[in-house]
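[C-ALPHA COORDINATES]
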Amino acid sequence: MDRSWRLIPAAAVLLAAAACGNSANTTTDKGATANAGGASKTIALFLPESKTTRYEAFDRPLFEAKVKQLCAECKILYSNAEQDAAKQQQQVEAALTQGANVLVLDAVDANAVAPLVNQAKQKKIPVIAYDRLISGIDYAYYVSFNNVRVGEMQGQALLDAMNAKGTTAKGQIVEIHGAPTDPSSADYKKGAKSVLGGKVKVGREFDTPDWSPDKAQQQMEQAITAIGRDNIVGVLSANDGMAGGAIAAMKRAGYKELPPITGQDAELAAVQRILTGEQYMTIYLDIRAEAEKSAELAVAVAKGEQPAATSKVNNGTVDIPAFLLDPIAVTADKVKDTIVKDKFYTADQICTAEVKAACAKAGIQ
Protein backbone atom coordinates (compact mmCIF):
# COMPACT_ATOMS: atom_id res chain seq x y z
CA MET A 1 0.00 0.00 0.00
CA ASP A 2 1.92 9.81 1.38
CA ARG A 3 -0.38 12.06 -0.35
CA SER A 4 0.44 15.53 0.57
CA TRP A 5 -1.73 15.28 3.71
CA ARG A 6 -4.46 16.81 1.90
CA LEU A 7 -7.22 14.73 0.34
CA ILE A 8 -7.70 15.09 -3.37
CA PRO A 9 -10.81 17.17 -4.00
CA ALA A 10 -13.66 15.00 -5.07
CA ALA A 11 -14.12 16.95 -8.28
CA ALA A 12 -10.56 16.25 -9.28
CA VAL A 13 -10.73 12.51 -8.81
CA LEU A 14 -14.27 11.52 -9.65
CA LEU A 15 -15.92 11.29 -13.03
CA ALA A 16 -19.25 12.99 -13.50
CA ALA A 17 -21.88 10.48 -12.45
CA ALA A 18 -24.24 9.39 -15.19
CA ALA A 19 -27.54 7.66 -14.62
CA CYS A 20 -27.91 4.05 -15.78
CA GLY A 21 -30.26 4.78 -18.65
CA ASN A 22 -30.35 3.77 -22.32
CA SER A 23 -27.42 4.65 -24.53
CA ALA A 24 -26.18 3.78 -27.98
CA ASN A 25 -23.75 0.94 -28.48
CA THR A 26 -20.19 2.26 -28.21
CA THR A 27 -16.99 0.55 -29.27
CA THR A 28 -13.95 1.72 -27.29
CA ASP A 29 -10.51 2.08 -28.81
CA LYS A 30 -9.54 -0.98 -26.75
CA GLY A 31 -11.80 -3.12 -28.89
CA ALA A 32 -14.34 -3.78 -26.15
CA THR A 33 -17.99 -3.22 -27.02
CA ALA A 34 -20.27 -2.53 -24.09
CA ASN A 35 -23.92 -3.47 -24.54
CA ALA A 36 -26.33 -0.59 -24.29
CA GLY A 37 -30.02 -0.60 -23.63
CA GLY A 38 -32.24 -0.83 -20.61
CA ALA A 39 -31.01 -4.17 -19.31
CA SER A 40 -29.19 -4.05 -16.00
CA LYS A 41 -25.41 -4.33 -16.12
CA THR A 42 -23.20 -6.78 -14.25
CA ILE A 43 -19.96 -5.46 -12.78
CA ALA A 44 -17.41 -7.92 -11.41
CA LEU A 45 -14.92 -6.86 -8.73
CA PHE A 46 -11.95 -9.09 -7.92
CA LEU A 47 -9.72 -8.37 -4.92
CA PRO A 48 -6.50 -10.29 -4.23
CA GLU A 49 -6.43 -11.04 -0.51
CA SER A 50 -7.67 -10.20 2.97
CA LYS A 51 -4.44 -10.21 5.00
CA THR A 52 -4.22 -6.50 4.22
CA THR A 53 -7.24 -5.15 6.07
CA ARG A 54 -8.07 -2.38 3.59
CA TYR A 55 -9.61 -4.68 0.97
CA GLU A 56 -12.58 -5.99 2.95
CA ALA A 57 -12.89 -3.02 5.29
CA PHE A 58 -12.73 -0.25 2.68
CA ASP A 59 -12.19 -1.14 -0.98
CA ARG A 60 -15.09 -3.56 -1.36
CA PRO A 61 -17.82 -1.65 0.56
CA LEU A 62 -16.84 1.71 -0.93
CA PHE A 63 -16.80 0.32 -4.47
CA GLU A 64 -20.13 -1.44 -4.05
CA ALA A 65 -21.81 1.58 -2.49
CA LYS A 66 -20.70 3.86 -5.33
CA VAL A 67 -21.89 1.44 -8.01
CA LYS A 68 -25.30 1.22 -6.36
CA GLN A 69 -25.47 5.02 -6.04
CA LEU A 70 -24.78 5.44 -9.75
CA CYS A 71 -26.69 2.43 -11.03
CA ALA A 72 -29.23 0.97 -8.63
CA GLU A 73 -30.15 -1.84 -11.02
CA CYS A 74 -26.56 -2.90 -11.66
CA LYS A 75 -25.56 -6.30 -10.35
CA ILE A 76 -22.22 -6.72 -8.59
CA LEU A 77 -20.25 -9.97 -8.60
CA TYR A 78 -17.60 -9.93 -5.89
CA SER A 79 -14.69 -12.33 -5.34
CA ASN A 80 -11.64 -12.38 -3.09
CA ALA A 81 -8.87 -14.75 -4.18
CA GLU A 82 -7.13 -15.01 -0.79
CA GLN A 83 -3.71 -14.75 -2.51
CA ASP A 84 -4.44 -17.78 -4.72
CA ALA A 85 -3.82 -17.01 -8.40
CA ALA A 86 -5.50 -20.23 -9.54
CA LYS A 87 -8.57 -19.39 -7.46
CA GLN A 88 -8.70 -15.92 -9.01
CA GLN A 89 -8.57 -17.45 -12.47
CA GLN A 90 -11.61 -19.57 -11.62
CA GLN A 91 -13.40 -16.52 -10.24
CA VAL A 92 -12.77 -14.46 -13.38
CA GLU A 93 -13.83 -17.27 -15.69
CA ALA A 94 -16.99 -17.78 -13.64
CA ALA A 95 -17.83 -14.07 -13.89
CA LEU A 96 -17.37 -14.15 -17.65
CA THR A 97 -19.69 -17.16 -17.82
CA GLN A 98 -22.25 -15.30 -15.70
CA GLY A 99 -22.36 -12.44 -18.20
CA ALA A 100 -20.24 -9.75 -16.55
CA ASN A 101 -20.22 -6.53 -18.60
CA VAL A 102 -16.97 -5.20 -17.09
CA LEU A 103 -14.19 -6.64 -14.92
CA VAL A 104 -12.46 -4.62 -12.19
CA LEU A 105 -9.41 -6.71 -11.40
CA ASP A 106 -6.86 -6.38 -8.61
CA ALA A 107 -4.63 -9.26 -9.64
CA VAL A 108 -2.97 -11.70 -7.27
CA ASP A 109 -0.19 -12.10 -9.83
CA ALA A 110 -0.30 -9.07 -12.09
CA ASN A 111 2.42 -10.50 -14.33
CA ALA A 112 0.44 -13.67 -15.10
CA VAL A 113 -3.15 -12.58 -15.73
CA ALA A 114 -2.77 -11.53 -19.37
CA PRO A 115 -4.55 -14.76 -20.50
CA LEU A 116 -7.53 -13.84 -18.32
CA VAL A 117 -7.63 -10.33 -19.76
CA ASN A 118 -7.42 -11.86 -23.22
CA GLN A 119 -10.46 -14.05 -22.46
CA ALA A 120 -12.37 -10.91 -21.54
CA LYS A 121 -11.19 -9.10 -24.68
CA GLN A 122 -12.36 -11.98 -26.86
CA LYS A 123 -15.81 -11.54 -25.32
CA LYS A 124 -15.50 -7.75 -25.77
CA ILE A 125 -15.63 -7.22 -21.98
CA PRO A 126 -13.64 -4.16 -20.79
CA VAL A 127 -11.09 -4.68 -18.00
CA ILE A 128 -10.09 -2.09 -15.41
CA ALA A 129 -6.86 -2.86 -13.53
CA TYR A 130 -7.48 -1.86 -9.92
CA ASP A 131 -4.58 -0.86 -7.66
CA ARG A 132 -2.06 -3.18 -9.41
CA LEU A 133 -0.88 -2.62 -12.95
CA ILE A 134 -1.48 -5.67 -15.16
CA SER A 135 1.46 -6.41 -17.45
CA GLY A 136 1.80 -7.71 -20.97
CA ILE A 137 -1.55 -6.89 -22.57
CA ASP A 138 -3.78 -3.98 -23.57
CA TYR A 139 -6.95 -3.18 -21.60
CA ALA A 140 -9.30 -0.31 -20.83
CA TYR A 141 -8.05 1.52 -17.71
CA TYR A 142 -5.74 1.46 -14.71
CA VAL A 143 -6.70 3.12 -11.39
CA SER A 144 -4.16 3.36 -8.58
CA PHE A 145 -1.87 5.68 -6.70
CA ASN A 146 1.45 7.17 -7.77
CA ASN A 147 3.37 4.18 -6.46
CA VAL A 148 6.87 5.50 -7.13
CA ARG A 149 5.92 8.57 -5.11
CA VAL A 150 4.79 6.28 -2.27
CA GLY A 151 8.27 4.76 -2.14
CA GLU A 152 9.92 8.17 -2.31
CA MET A 153 7.88 9.35 0.66
CA GLN A 154 8.70 6.22 2.66
CA GLY A 155 12.40 6.56 1.92
CA GLN A 156 12.47 10.27 2.74
CA ALA A 157 10.56 9.77 5.99
CA LEU A 158 12.96 7.04 7.10
CA LEU A 159 15.97 9.18 6.18
CA ASP A 160 14.55 12.19 8.02
CA ALA A 161 13.90 10.10 11.15
CA MET A 162 17.42 8.65 11.18
CA ASN A 163 18.98 12.05 10.53
CA ALA A 164 17.00 13.50 13.44
CA LYS A 165 18.32 10.73 15.70
CA GLY A 166 21.84 11.11 14.35
CA THR A 167 22.01 7.41 13.45
CA THR A 168 22.09 7.48 9.64
CA ALA A 169 25.79 6.72 9.35
CA LYS A 170 26.06 4.63 12.52
CA GLY A 171 24.46 1.40 11.38
CA GLN A 172 22.50 -0.41 8.71
CA ILE A 173 18.88 -0.55 7.59
CA VAL A 174 16.66 -3.49 6.75
CA GLU A 175 14.42 -3.24 3.68
CA ILE A 176 11.25 -5.34 3.66
CA HIS A 177 9.61 -5.01 0.26
CA GLY A 178 6.26 -6.36 -0.91
CA ALA A 179 5.24 -9.35 -2.99
CA PRO A 180 7.35 -9.89 -6.12
CA THR A 181 4.14 -10.76 -8.01
CA ASP A 182 2.79 -7.24 -7.39
CA PRO A 183 4.21 -4.62 -9.82
CA SER A 184 3.37 -1.92 -7.28
CA SER A 185 6.02 -3.40 -5.01
CA ALA A 186 8.70 -2.75 -7.62
CA ASP A 187 7.52 0.86 -7.88
CA TYR A 188 7.65 1.36 -4.10
CA LYS A 189 11.16 -0.11 -4.08
CA LYS A 190 12.25 2.11 -6.96
CA GLY A 191 10.99 5.23 -5.24
CA ALA A 192 12.55 4.42 -1.88
CA LYS A 193 15.92 3.52 -3.36
CA SER A 194 16.00 6.75 -5.36
CA VAL A 195 15.97 8.60 -2.02
CA LEU A 196 18.06 6.26 0.14
CA GLY A 197 20.67 5.23 -2.42
CA GLY A 198 24.18 6.26 -1.38
CA LYS A 199 22.94 7.70 1.92
CA VAL A 200 22.43 4.53 3.98
CA LYS A 201 23.93 1.08 4.21
CA VAL A 202 21.46 -1.73 3.53
CA GLY A 203 22.24 -4.66 5.78
CA ARG A 204 19.50 -7.00 4.60
CA GLU A 205 16.83 -6.73 1.90
CA PHE A 206 13.80 -8.96 1.35
CA ASP A 207 10.91 -9.42 -1.07
CA THR A 208 7.96 -10.73 0.92
CA PRO A 209 5.63 -13.31 -0.68
CA ASP A 210 1.94 -12.43 -0.30
CA TRP A 211 2.83 -9.28 1.67
CA SER A 212 2.68 -11.63 4.66
CA PRO A 213 3.21 -10.10 8.13
CA ASP A 214 4.30 -13.53 9.41
CA LYS A 215 6.95 -13.82 6.72
CA ALA A 216 8.07 -10.25 7.39
CA GLN A 217 8.52 -11.17 11.05
CA GLN A 218 10.68 -14.14 10.06
CA GLN A 219 12.71 -11.95 7.72
CA MET A 220 13.29 -9.39 10.44
CA GLU A 221 14.39 -12.12 12.82
CA GLN A 222 16.91 -13.28 10.22
CA ALA A 223 18.17 -9.72 9.77
CA ILE A 224 18.62 -9.20 13.51
CA THR A 225 20.60 -12.42 13.75
CA ALA A 226 22.78 -11.53 10.77
CA ILE A 227 23.38 -7.84 11.43
CA GLY A 228 23.11 -7.63 15.19
CA ARG A 229 20.38 -5.92 17.17
CA ASP A 230 22.37 -2.78 17.94
CA ASN A 231 23.50 -2.29 14.35
CA ILE A 232 20.01 -1.80 12.86
CA VAL A 233 19.13 1.90 12.74
CA GLY A 234 16.05 1.84 10.49
CA VAL A 235 13.55 -0.41 8.76
CA LEU A 236 11.95 0.32 5.40
CA SER A 237 8.69 -1.64 5.37
CA ALA A 238 6.50 -1.32 2.30
CA ASN A 239 3.23 -1.63 4.23
CA ASP A 240 1.75 -1.60 7.72
CA GLY A 241 1.05 -5.31 8.01
CA MET A 242 4.69 -6.17 7.39
CA ALA A 243 5.76 -3.35 9.70
CA GLY A 244 3.72 -5.03 12.41
CA GLY A 245 5.56 -8.29 11.77
CA ALA A 246 8.95 -6.56 11.89
CA ILE A 247 8.03 -4.77 15.12
CA ALA A 248 6.98 -8.08 16.69
CA ALA A 249 10.39 -9.52 15.79
CA MET A 250 12.22 -6.55 17.30
CA LYS A 251 10.20 -6.71 20.50
CA ARG A 252 10.94 -10.39 20.75
CA ALA A 253 14.63 -9.62 20.31
CA GLY A 254 14.54 -7.31 23.32
CA TYR A 255 14.82 -3.87 21.74
CA LYS A 256 14.54 -1.19 24.43
CA GLU A 257 13.93 1.46 21.75
CA LEU A 258 12.69 0.58 18.29
CA PRO A 259 14.41 2.12 15.27
CA PRO A 260 12.18 4.15 12.92
CA ILE A 261 10.06 1.98 10.63
CA THR A 262 7.85 2.93 7.71
CA GLY A 263 4.50 1.59 6.54
CA GLN A 264 1.58 2.08 4.18
CA ASP A 265 -2.23 1.77 4.17
CA ALA A 266 -2.98 3.57 7.47
CA GLU A 267 -4.24 0.38 9.09
CA LEU A 268 -5.86 1.03 12.47
CA ALA A 269 -3.22 -0.93 14.39
CA ALA A 270 -0.49 1.00 12.57
CA VAL A 271 -2.06 4.37 13.39
CA GLN A 272 -2.11 3.34 17.02
CA ARG A 273 1.54 2.21 16.83
CA ILE A 274 2.49 5.55 15.29
CA LEU A 275 0.84 7.44 18.12
CA THR A 276 2.57 5.32 20.77
CA GLY A 277 5.93 5.59 19.03
CA GLU A 278 6.42 2.01 17.88
CA GLN A 279 6.06 2.84 14.16
CA TYR A 280 7.35 6.06 12.67
CA MET A 281 4.96 6.67 9.79
CA THR A 282 2.48 5.29 7.32
CA ILE A 283 1.31 6.21 3.85
CA TYR A 284 -2.32 7.22 3.93
CA LEU A 285 -4.02 6.27 0.69
CA ASP A 286 -7.34 7.84 -0.12
CA ILE A 287 -8.93 4.47 -0.78
CA ARG A 288 -12.35 6.11 -1.05
CA ALA A 289 -11.21 8.10 -4.09
CA GLU A 290 -9.64 5.00 -5.65
CA ALA A 291 -12.67 2.77 -5.08
CA GLU A 292 -15.19 5.37 -6.17
CA LYS A 293 -13.20 6.34 -9.26
CA SER A 294 -13.08 2.67 -10.26
CA ALA A 295 -16.79 2.25 -9.62
CA GLU A 296 -17.59 5.28 -11.78
CA LEU A 297 -15.41 3.95 -14.58
CA ALA A 298 -17.02 0.51 -14.30
CA VAL A 299 -20.53 1.92 -14.58
CA ALA A 300 -19.53 4.18 -17.47
CA VAL A 301 -17.83 1.50 -19.57
CA ALA A 302 -20.59 -1.00 -18.81
CA LYS A 303 -22.91 1.53 -20.45
CA GLY A 304 -20.63 1.84 -23.47
CA GLU A 305 -19.05 5.16 -22.52
CA GLN A 306 -15.35 5.95 -22.80
CA PRO A 307 -14.25 8.48 -20.14
CA ALA A 308 -11.02 10.37 -20.83
CA ALA A 309 -8.13 9.34 -18.59
CA THR A 310 -5.91 11.88 -16.86
CA SER A 311 -2.61 10.11 -17.64
CA LYS A 312 -1.07 6.98 -19.13
CA VAL A 313 1.13 4.25 -17.65
CA ASN A 314 3.24 1.86 -19.71
CA ASN A 315 2.77 -1.75 -18.62
CA GLY A 316 5.69 -3.10 -20.63
CA THR A 317 3.59 -3.64 -23.72
CA VAL A 318 1.36 -0.62 -24.21
CA ASP A 319 0.39 2.69 -22.60
CA ILE A 320 -2.71 2.15 -20.46
CA PRO A 321 -5.12 5.06 -19.84
CA ALA A 322 -4.77 5.74 -16.13
CA PHE A 323 -6.02 7.66 -13.14
CA LEU A 324 -3.23 8.05 -10.55
CA LEU A 325 -4.08 9.47 -7.14
CA ASP A 326 -1.65 11.16 -4.75
CA PRO A 327 -0.41 9.49 -1.53
CA ILE A 328 0.03 11.25 1.84
CA ALA A 329 2.77 10.66 4.42
CA VAL A 330 1.51 10.56 8.02
CA THR A 331 3.53 10.77 11.21
CA ALA A 332 2.12 11.10 14.73
CA ASP A 333 1.71 14.87 14.44
CA LYS A 334 -0.40 14.52 11.29
CA VAL A 335 -2.89 11.85 12.38
CA LYS A 336 -5.42 14.34 13.74
CA ASP A 337 -5.54 16.56 10.66
CA THR A 338 -5.65 13.72 8.15
CA ILE A 339 -6.96 10.33 9.22
CA VAL A 340 -9.23 11.63 11.96
CA LYS A 341 -10.32 14.75 10.08
CA ASP A 342 -11.23 12.67 7.03
CA LYS A 343 -13.14 10.21 9.26
CA PHE A 344 -11.07 7.34 7.95
CA TYR A 345 -11.15 6.26 11.60
CA THR A 346 -12.91 7.97 14.47
CA ALA A 347 -11.14 9.11 17.61
CA ASP A 348 -13.04 6.42 19.53
CA GLN A 349 -11.72 3.72 17.20
CA ILE A 350 -8.15 4.90 17.56
CA CYS A 351 -8.05 5.95 21.19
CA THR A 352 -8.49 2.69 23.04
CA ALA A 353 -7.34 2.45 26.67
CA GLU A 354 -3.78 1.59 25.65
CA VAL A 355 -3.57 4.54 23.28
CA LYS A 356 -5.56 7.11 25.24
CA ALA A 357 -2.55 8.96 26.65
CA ALA A 358 -0.84 9.10 23.27
CA CYS A 359 -4.05 10.41 21.71
CA ALA A 360 -4.24 13.18 24.29
CA LYS A 361 -0.65 14.15 23.53
CA ALA A 362 -1.51 14.33 19.82
CA GLY A 363 -4.63 16.38 20.53
CA ILE A 364 -7.02 13.60 19.49
CA GLN A 365 -10.11 13.43 21.66
Q: What stands out?
A: The chain has two domains: 10-145+286-326, 147-284+329-361. The longest helix spans residues 147-165. The chain has a mean pLDDT of 90. The domain at 10-145+286-326 is CATH 3.40.50.2300 (Rossmann fold).
